């Protein structure tokens, strides 16, 4: 007679909950208000939760407007630049989500939209003391 052990029951339950969690996350991602436009390779132009996200790849080696750092993509929310930084491990942070890391700039921008809760980005004040 085969009896299921408590450990086997808990393992099966944990596995089923993991599958349900992944399915739920996939369904949520598909249901979000995200409409991406066809853009050149490496760029993003989409509407996410009613906000326009635009990401342009880094230009070849220099400043190209705003307070942008060389080698980093330009990330804009409703036309206002979101200051982003890449960590040594390849993850991304922004001034909106400074203590939370993201795998890529689009995940970072979407998280910033959620965090802003409808607020506009304020311009970054960069530079030294006068």
Major β-sheet profile = 5 strands, antiparallel
Strand order of the largest sheet: 1-2-3-4-5
Q: Give the quaternary arrangement of the chains.
A: single chain
Strand fraction band?
15-25%
Mean pLDDT: 77
* Uncertain segments: 61-67
Estimate percent helicity. Answer: 25-40%
Number of strands: 7
Number of helices: 2
Query: What is the first-to-last residue Cα distance?
Result: 83 Å
Q: Find the structural class using helix and strand composition.
A: alpha+beta
As a whole number of angstroms, the C-alpha radius of gyration is: 20 Å
* SSE sequence, one letter per element: HEEEEEEEH
Description:
With 130 residues, the protein is of the alpha+beta class. It contains two helices and seven strands, in the order H-E-E-E-E-E-E-E-H. The chain has helices spanning 6-31, 105-116; strands spanning 34-36, 44-48, 51-56, 74-77, 80-82, 84-86, 92-94. The strands form two sheets. A five-stranded antiparallel sheet has the order 1-2-3-4-5, with helices on one face. A two-stranded antiparallel sheet has the order 6-7. The longest helix is centred in the N-terminal third of the chain and has 26 residues, at 6-31. It is elongated. Mean pLDDT is 77; it is low at 61-67.
């Amino acid at each position: 007679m085969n009896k299921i052990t408590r450990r086997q029951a808990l393992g099966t339950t944990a596995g089923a909950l993991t599958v349900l969690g992944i399915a739920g996350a996939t369904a949520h991602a598909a249901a979000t208000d995200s409409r991406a436009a066809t853009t050149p390779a490496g760029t993003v132009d989409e509407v996410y939760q009613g906000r326009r996200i635009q990401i342009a790849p880094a230009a070849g080696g220099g400043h190209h407007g705003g307070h942008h750092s060389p080698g980093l993509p330009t990330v804009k929310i409703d036309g206002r630049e979101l200051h982003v930084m890449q960590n040594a491990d390849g993850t991304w942070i922004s001034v909106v989500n400074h203590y939370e890391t993201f795998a890529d700039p689009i995940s970072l921008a979407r998280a910033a939209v959620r965090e802003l809760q409808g607020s506009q980005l304020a311009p970054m004040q960069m530079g030294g003391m006068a």
